[in-house]
Amino acid sequence: MVKTLGKYIGPPALLYLAAVAGQGFWLPPFAEFLMRRDPAPAADLIVVSTGSYARFRYAVGLAQKNPAAKLLILGDRRIVTPLPGKSPLDLAADEALALGLPERQLILKHSTSTLVDARAAKNIMEERAFATAAVVSDSYNMRRLAMIFDHVFRESAVRLHYLPAEFKADPPHPRQWWKYPREFRYVVMEWIKLPLDFFRIHFLLGE
Amino acid sequence: MMKPKRLAAILIFLVFIMAAVFPRVLYRLGTFLAVAENAGTVDAVVISHSAEKAFACYRRGRCKKVVIATQKTTRPDWQALKSLNSEDTIRQQARRAGIRDEDLYLLHLAADNDVQKARTLKTFFAKKKIRSALFLFSFYKTRRHRFFFDRVFSGGAITAYVQPYKDDYHAAFDHWWQKTTYANYFLGEYLTMAWYVFNKLLWTSAV
Q1: ipTM more than 0.95?
Q2: Which residues of A touch B202 (CB under 8 A)?
Q3: pTM of the predicted model, to two decimals?
Q4: Please, what are the domains in chain A?
Q5: Would the CB atoms of B79 and A78 count as touching at under 8 Å?
Q6: CATH number of B42-164
Q7: DSSP codes joined into one string, B63-114
């Protein structure tokens, strides 16, 4: 009886104990794989969506350092924050101006996904004959973002650089991401979306 | 070996079943996130920013105190939201709404996660002798808070009720999976609950 039970319970129990004891080894690669940082170029266009404030603020900082560049801000106008009743895109536009960015440097576009962001960026790059773009997003969003942008720009001569927005006050914790609810959400969500988006751009979209 | 015709028939049948069932399942997954509990008369109503529903509850005498529990964070956030959520602004709005100063508590939650937040609230309630409280959140955050309150307040002297702070949220569930922002919000709520379970399973110090 005990022998039979041990046969069935033993291996899963050992596996579980190994997973608990070795969490510091097998979990970090899930976050580290999602991250990417390119050298910051003097870009013609800085692309950012309003998915998080941190990335927006980082992109505004880049635009302020490079006044010749345009800042393309993308966001969904359909959903508004409870207070003050504005969409993140409108909040971003207001704040970019309040931070001293001239209106001529700003381009605002309604967008509903990373794929729409990439297509909007490509249209603007082609219309204005821009050569280099810096695409800004959150640390754990970079892998999927780069996959989608690279796919949309695959026949274009435009050079894309991917820059994660990082703040000293709120750094990511890729070695312990599962302990932080926000990072846990982000990493798991990216791992759900990454294969779905891969399938979508390679098999469903007949561009 | 299955005949191709038979295999095709089974596949068509499965696709048909999935197409028929999936929207219903997804819709239910959305509505599951909204919790609206009957509170009756409570010692306090707790909100994270000024909300008319909380003030109305106070004016009707069903909520004896108003607790505004704001999140203290080092994370950068929209300036427009920061100024709205400042202590002075909230106090002025509460005064205008007819809340007496002695019945208004402002609580800063310096917590990284929902467990810590709930524990801070528990300590605060014990100090202020609050035994029953109505918590108001965005509709899709109510299930998550119910989940954490069940774990942190269980067996204690606090009875917590959860409601959306606005009642006009039902339209948000229509095809929510086709709206990226809501899809992210809703998935994020499930993942935050999963974060708790995951960390419990791994015996981490986070929970």
Answers
A1: no
A2: 19-20, 23, 178
A3: 0.89
A4: 36-167 (3.40.50.620)
A5: no
A6: 3.40.50.620
A7: EEEEEEEEEP-SS---HHHHHHTSHHHHHHHHHHTT--GGGEEEEEE--SSH
